[in-house]
Amino acid sequence: MAARSSSNEIRLTRIYDAPVRAVWDAWTLPEQAAQWWGPRGFTLTTHSKDLRAGGHWRYTMHGPDGVDYPNVAKYHVVEPHKKLIYDHGATDDRPALFHVTVTFTEAHGRTTMELIFALPSPEAAAEIAKHIKQAGGNATWDRLAEHLEEASTGRRRFVINRALDAPIARVFGMWANPEHLAKWLPPPGTTMRFVRSEIAAGKSTLFVIAGRHGTMHVRAEYLEIDPPRRIVYTQQFVDEREQLAPAPGAETWPATLLTTVLFTEETPDRTRVTVTSEPYGEVGEAGEVTSAEVEAFVHERAGMTLGWTSSFDALEALVQ
Prior knowledge:
CATH class of the largest domain: Alpha Beta
CATH superfamily of the largest domain: START domain
Distance between the termini: 15 Å
Strand order of the largest sheet: 1-7-6-5-4-3-2
Structural class: alpha+beta
CATH architecture of the largest domain: 2-Layer Sandwich
Order of helices and strands: EHHEEEEEEHHEHHEEEEEEHH
Number of strands: 14
Radius of gyration: 21 Å
CATH topology of the largest domain: Alpha-D-Glucose-1,6-Bisphosphate, Chain A, domain 4
Strand content: 35-45%
Shape: globular
Helix content: 25-40%
Number of helices: 8
Protein backbone atom coordinates (compact mmCIF):
# COMPACT_ATOMS: atom_id res chain seq x y z
CA MET A 1 0.00 0.00 0.00
CA ALA A 2 1.26 3.46 -0.82
CA ALA A 3 1.45 6.24 1.73
CA ARG A 4 -1.78 8.14 2.20
CA SER A 5 -1.72 11.75 1.07
CA SER A 6 -4.15 14.58 0.32
CA SER A 7 -1.95 15.62 -2.63
CA ASN A 8 -2.12 14.42 -6.21
CA GLU A 9 0.80 12.02 -5.58
CA ILE A 10 0.99 8.41 -4.46
CA ARG A 11 4.35 7.50 -2.93
CA LEU A 12 5.84 4.08 -2.30
CA THR A 13 9.21 2.94 -0.95
CA ARG A 14 10.65 -0.56 -1.02
CA ILE A 15 14.09 -1.86 -0.01
CA TYR A 16 15.43 -4.90 -1.84
CA ASP A 17 18.29 -7.20 -0.82
CA ALA A 18 19.99 -6.77 -4.18
CA PRO A 19 22.51 -4.38 -5.72
CA VAL A 20 21.15 -1.51 -7.78
CA ARG A 21 22.38 -3.02 -11.05
CA ALA A 22 20.22 -6.12 -10.46
CA VAL A 23 17.13 -4.02 -9.65
CA TRP A 24 17.72 -1.78 -12.66
CA ASP A 25 18.09 -4.78 -14.98
CA ALA A 26 14.88 -6.29 -13.59
CA TRP A 27 13.07 -3.08 -14.52
CA THR A 28 14.63 -2.46 -17.91
CA LEU A 29 15.34 -5.83 -19.55
CA PRO A 30 12.14 -7.19 -21.16
CA GLU A 31 12.98 -10.82 -20.40
CA GLN A 32 13.29 -9.98 -16.71
CA ALA A 33 10.28 -7.63 -16.54
CA ALA A 34 8.19 -10.51 -17.92
CA GLN A 35 8.94 -12.47 -14.74
CA TRP A 36 7.36 -9.99 -12.31
CA TRP A 37 5.60 -7.00 -13.88
CA GLY A 38 1.94 -6.69 -12.90
CA PRO A 39 -0.40 -8.19 -10.28
CA ARG A 40 -0.36 -11.89 -9.38
CA GLY A 41 -1.60 -14.06 -12.22
CA PHE A 42 -0.74 -11.57 -14.96
CA THR A 43 1.76 -12.24 -17.73
CA LEU A 44 3.55 -9.76 -19.96
CA THR A 45 4.46 -9.54 -23.64
CA THR A 46 6.86 -6.79 -24.73
CA HIS A 47 6.42 -5.72 -28.35
CA SER A 48 9.18 -3.11 -28.41
CA LYS A 49 11.29 -1.17 -25.93
CA ASP A 50 13.37 1.92 -26.67
CA LEU A 51 14.96 2.77 -23.31
CA ARG A 52 15.92 6.42 -23.77
CA ALA A 53 14.41 9.84 -23.22
CA GLY A 54 11.65 10.15 -25.81
CA GLY A 55 11.55 6.38 -26.35
CA HIS A 56 8.58 4.08 -25.83
CA TRP A 57 7.90 0.71 -24.22
CA ARG A 58 5.01 -1.05 -25.95
CA TYR A 59 3.67 -4.07 -24.09
CA THR A 60 0.51 -6.03 -23.34
CA MET A 61 -0.47 -7.31 -19.92
CA HIS A 62 -2.49 -10.53 -20.05
CA GLY A 63 -4.94 -10.93 -17.19
CA PRO A 64 -5.69 -14.32 -15.60
CA ASP A 65 -9.24 -14.00 -16.98
CA GLY A 66 -7.93 -13.80 -20.55
CA VAL A 67 -8.39 -10.02 -20.93
CA ASP A 68 -5.51 -8.16 -22.59
CA TYR A 69 -4.40 -4.69 -21.46
CA PRO A 70 -2.25 -2.88 -24.07
CA ASN A 71 0.09 -0.20 -22.76
CA VAL A 72 2.43 2.39 -24.20
CA ALA A 73 4.90 3.97 -21.77
CA LYS A 74 6.84 7.05 -22.87
CA TYR A 75 10.20 7.68 -21.20
CA HIS A 76 11.11 11.25 -20.27
CA VAL A 77 14.25 10.61 -18.18
CA VAL A 78 16.54 7.57 -18.24
CA GLU A 79 19.54 7.74 -15.91
CA PRO A 80 21.01 4.21 -15.73
CA HIS A 81 20.98 2.74 -12.20
CA LYS A 82 19.58 6.01 -10.83
CA LYS A 83 16.26 7.23 -12.22
CA LEU A 84 13.36 6.57 -14.58
CA ILE A 85 10.60 9.06 -15.38
CA TYR A 86 7.82 7.94 -17.69
CA ASP A 87 4.12 8.19 -18.51
CA HIS A 88 2.08 5.12 -17.58
CA GLY A 89 -1.19 3.62 -18.78
CA ALA A 90 -1.44 5.13 -22.26
CA THR A 91 -2.51 3.35 -25.43
CA ASP A 92 -2.43 4.51 -29.02
CA ASP A 93 -5.95 5.88 -28.48
CA ARG A 94 -5.79 7.02 -24.84
CA PRO A 95 -3.54 9.46 -22.97
CA ALA A 96 -1.44 8.32 -20.01
CA LEU A 97 -3.18 7.78 -16.69
CA PHE A 98 -0.33 9.15 -14.58
CA HIS A 99 3.31 10.21 -14.49
CA VAL A 100 5.85 7.97 -12.70
CA THR A 101 9.21 8.83 -11.16
CA VAL A 102 11.36 5.92 -9.93
CA THR A 103 14.67 6.42 -8.15
CA PHE A 104 17.17 3.72 -7.19
CA THR A 105 19.75 4.15 -4.42
CA GLU A 106 22.20 1.50 -3.23
CA ALA A 107 23.70 1.23 0.25
CA HIS A 108 25.55 -1.78 1.68
CA GLY A 109 24.44 -3.99 -1.18
CA ARG A 110 20.74 -3.20 -0.77
CA THR A 111 18.66 -1.01 -3.07
CA THR A 112 16.03 1.50 -2.00
CA MET A 113 13.42 2.01 -4.69
CA GLU A 114 11.20 5.07 -4.38
CA LEU A 115 8.20 5.58 -6.65
CA ILE A 116 6.07 8.68 -7.08
CA PHE A 117 2.86 8.42 -9.11
CA ALA A 118 1.68 11.92 -10.07
CA LEU A 119 -1.97 12.38 -11.08
CA PRO A 120 -4.01 15.42 -12.16
CA SER A 121 -5.78 15.85 -8.79
CA PRO A 122 -6.04 14.44 -5.25
CA GLU A 123 -9.34 12.85 -6.24
CA ALA A 124 -7.71 11.08 -9.19
CA ALA A 125 -4.87 9.91 -6.93
CA ALA A 126 -7.33 8.47 -4.41
CA GLU A 127 -9.24 6.69 -7.18
CA ILE A 128 -6.09 5.17 -8.70
CA ALA A 129 -4.84 4.07 -5.25
CA LYS A 130 -8.19 2.35 -4.67
CA HIS A 131 -8.03 0.66 -8.08
CA ILE A 132 -4.44 -0.53 -7.50
CA LYS A 133 -5.44 -2.11 -4.19
CA GLN A 134 -8.55 -3.78 -5.60
CA ALA A 135 -6.64 -5.14 -8.61
CA GLY A 136 -3.83 -6.50 -6.43
CA GLY A 137 -1.37 -4.17 -8.08
CA ASN A 138 0.69 -3.74 -4.92
CA ALA A 139 1.77 -7.38 -5.36
CA THR A 140 3.84 -6.20 -8.34
CA TRP A 141 6.57 -5.00 -5.98
CA ASP A 142 6.37 -8.24 -3.96
CA ARG A 143 6.83 -10.18 -7.20
CA LEU A 144 9.92 -8.06 -7.91
CA ALA A 145 11.37 -9.08 -4.53
CA GLU A 146 10.69 -12.75 -5.33
CA HIS A 147 12.28 -12.40 -8.77
CA LEU A 148 15.42 -10.74 -7.38
CA GLU A 149 15.78 -13.43 -4.70
CA GLU A 150 15.40 -16.28 -7.15
CA ALA A 151 17.80 -14.68 -9.64
CA SER A 152 20.53 -14.25 -7.02
CA THR A 153 20.13 -17.35 -4.83
CA GLY A 154 17.75 -19.73 -6.56
CA ARG A 155 15.42 -19.65 -3.54
CA ARG A 156 11.73 -19.44 -4.42
CA ARG A 157 9.91 -17.37 -1.83
CA PHE A 158 6.56 -15.72 -1.26
CA VAL A 159 6.64 -12.02 -0.29
CA ILE A 160 3.85 -9.66 0.73
CA ASN A 161 3.93 -6.16 2.23
CA ARG A 162 1.36 -3.98 3.94
CA ALA A 163 1.81 -0.48 5.37
CA LEU A 164 -0.39 0.19 8.41
CA ASP A 165 -1.23 3.54 9.95
CA ALA A 166 -0.19 2.63 13.48
CA PRO A 167 2.99 2.81 15.61
CA ILE A 168 5.41 -0.08 15.29
CA ALA A 169 4.92 -1.26 18.90
CA ARG A 170 1.16 -1.60 18.39
CA VAL A 171 1.56 -3.50 15.13
CA PHE A 172 4.20 -5.82 16.61
CA GLY A 173 1.91 -6.54 19.55
CA MET A 174 -0.80 -7.73 17.19
CA TRP A 175 1.59 -10.52 16.10
CA ALA A 176 3.13 -11.32 19.48
CA ASN A 177 -0.07 -11.52 21.55
CA PRO A 178 -2.14 -14.68 20.90
CA GLU A 179 -5.38 -12.94 21.89
CA HIS A 180 -4.81 -10.27 19.25
CA LEU A 181 -3.52 -12.72 16.65
CA ALA A 182 -6.70 -14.80 16.81
CA LYS A 183 -8.80 -11.75 15.92
CA TRP A 184 -7.22 -11.00 12.53
CA LEU A 185 -5.16 -13.94 11.23
CA PRO A 186 -7.85 -16.56 10.35
CA PRO A 187 -9.55 -16.49 6.94
CA PRO A 188 -12.97 -14.81 6.68
CA GLY A 189 -15.77 -17.02 7.96
CA THR A 190 -13.50 -19.02 10.28
CA THR A 191 -12.51 -18.88 13.94
CA MET A 192 -9.11 -19.41 15.53
CA ARG A 193 -8.59 -21.00 18.95
CA PHE A 194 -5.26 -21.57 20.69
CA VAL A 195 -4.58 -24.91 22.35
CA ARG A 196 -1.07 -23.78 23.32
CA SER A 197 -0.31 -20.10 23.13
CA GLU A 198 3.17 -19.13 24.33
CA ILE A 199 4.72 -16.94 21.65
CA ALA A 200 8.42 -16.83 22.55
CA ALA A 201 11.72 -17.86 21.00
CA GLY A 202 12.24 -21.59 21.51
CA LYS A 203 8.55 -22.16 22.20
CA SER A 204 5.68 -23.34 20.02
CA THR A 205 2.01 -22.64 19.65
CA LEU A 206 -0.79 -24.93 18.54
CA PHE A 207 -4.01 -23.47 17.20
CA VAL A 208 -7.19 -24.66 15.55
CA ILE A 209 -8.93 -22.89 12.68
CA ALA A 210 -12.53 -23.98 12.19
CA GLY A 211 -15.07 -23.07 9.53
CA ARG A 212 -17.69 -24.49 7.25
CA HIS A 213 -15.04 -26.39 5.28
CA GLY A 214 -13.79 -28.22 8.36
CA THR A 215 -11.10 -27.92 11.02
CA MET A 216 -7.33 -27.73 10.74
CA HIS A 217 -4.62 -27.82 13.38
CA VAL A 218 -1.49 -25.72 12.91
CA ARG A 219 1.75 -25.76 14.91
CA ALA A 220 4.12 -22.78 14.87
CA GLU A 221 7.68 -23.06 16.22
CA TYR A 222 9.18 -19.66 17.06
CA LEU A 223 12.86 -19.37 16.15
CA GLU A 224 13.47 -15.65 16.70
CA ILE A 225 11.58 -12.80 18.33
CA ASP A 226 13.24 -9.39 18.34
CA PRO A 227 10.71 -6.78 19.54
CA PRO A 228 9.54 -4.75 17.75
CA ARG A 229 11.46 -5.55 14.57
CA ARG A 230 11.39 -9.22 13.68
CA ILE A 231 9.60 -12.53 14.20
CA VAL A 232 10.74 -15.81 12.62
CA TYR A 233 8.79 -19.06 12.87
CA THR A 234 8.12 -22.35 11.13
CA GLN A 235 4.61 -23.61 10.50
CA GLN A 236 3.18 -27.09 9.92
CA PHE A 237 -0.24 -28.68 9.50
CA VAL A 238 -0.72 -31.36 12.16
CA ASP A 239 -3.46 -33.56 13.57
CA GLU A 240 -4.90 -33.58 17.11
CA ARG A 241 -1.84 -35.53 18.35
CA GLU A 242 0.51 -33.05 16.64
CA GLN A 243 1.61 -35.55 14.03
CA LEU A 244 2.28 -34.09 10.59
CA ALA A 245 -0.88 -33.97 8.49
CA PRO A 246 -1.55 -33.19 4.80
CA ALA A 247 -2.26 -29.59 3.89
CA PRO A 248 -6.01 -29.07 3.50
CA GLY A 249 -7.06 -29.21 -0.14
CA ALA A 250 -3.54 -29.83 -1.47
CA GLU A 251 -2.23 -33.16 -2.73
CA THR A 252 1.34 -31.85 -2.69
CA TRP A 253 2.67 -29.26 -0.25
CA PRO A 254 5.87 -28.64 1.77
CA ALA A 255 5.62 -30.14 5.26
CA THR A 256 7.19 -27.04 6.80
CA LEU A 257 7.23 -23.37 5.85
CA LEU A 258 9.66 -20.84 7.25
CA THR A 259 8.14 -17.38 7.73
CA THR A 260 9.96 -14.15 8.55
CA VAL A 261 7.99 -11.05 9.56
CA LEU A 262 9.81 -7.72 9.48
CA PHE A 263 8.41 -4.52 10.99
CA THR A 264 9.77 -1.23 9.63
CA GLU A 265 8.91 2.17 11.07
CA GLU A 266 8.19 4.45 8.11
CA THR A 267 7.02 7.27 10.41
CA PRO A 268 6.19 7.29 14.14
CA ASP A 269 2.57 6.48 13.20
CA ARG A 270 3.12 4.26 10.16
CA THR A 271 4.58 0.75 10.03
CA ARG A 272 5.41 -1.47 7.09
CA VAL A 273 5.04 -5.21 7.61
CA THR A 274 6.93 -7.53 5.26
CA VAL A 275 6.08 -11.24 5.35
CA THR A 276 8.39 -13.70 3.60
CA SER A 277 7.64 -17.43 3.46
CA GLU A 278 9.48 -20.32 1.83
CA PRO A 279 9.65 -24.12 1.99
CA TYR A 280 11.90 -25.10 4.90
CA GLY A 281 14.71 -27.52 4.15
CA GLU A 282 17.06 -28.44 1.33
CA VAL A 283 15.40 -29.21 -1.97
CA GLY A 284 16.00 -32.76 -3.15
CA GLU A 285 17.60 -34.00 0.08
CA ALA A 286 16.24 -37.21 1.59
CA GLY A 287 13.34 -36.45 3.88
CA GLU A 288 13.40 -32.78 2.95
CA VAL A 289 11.60 -30.62 0.38
CA THR A 290 10.89 -32.12 -3.04
CA SER A 291 10.93 -30.18 -6.30
CA ALA A 292 7.23 -30.97 -6.71
CA GLU A 293 6.49 -29.40 -3.32
CA VAL A 294 8.40 -26.25 -4.28
CA GLU A 295 6.45 -26.01 -7.54
CA ALA A 296 3.17 -26.44 -5.64
CA PHE A 297 4.23 -23.63 -3.30
CA VAL A 298 5.10 -21.32 -6.21
CA HIS A 299 1.84 -22.14 -7.98
CA GLU A 300 -0.13 -21.18 -4.86
CA ARG A 301 1.47 -17.75 -4.37
CA ALA A 302 -1.58 -16.02 -5.87
CA GLY A 303 -3.83 -17.82 -3.38
CA MET A 304 -1.46 -16.94 -0.54
CA THR A 305 -1.70 -13.30 -1.59
CA LEU A 306 -5.49 -13.43 -1.32
CA GLY A 307 -5.32 -15.10 2.09
CA TRP A 308 -2.77 -12.69 3.53
CA THR A 309 -4.63 -9.72 2.03
CA SER A 310 -7.83 -10.63 3.89
CA SER A 311 -5.85 -11.06 7.11
CA PHE A 312 -4.08 -7.73 6.63
CA ASP A 313 -7.42 -6.05 5.97
CA ALA A 314 -8.67 -7.36 9.33
CA LEU A 315 -5.44 -6.28 11.04
CA GLU A 316 -5.67 -2.83 9.48
CA ALA A 317 -9.17 -2.40 10.92
CA LEU A 318 -7.94 -3.39 14.39
CA VAL A 319 -4.95 -1.06 14.61
CA GLN A 320 -6.58 2.09 13.24
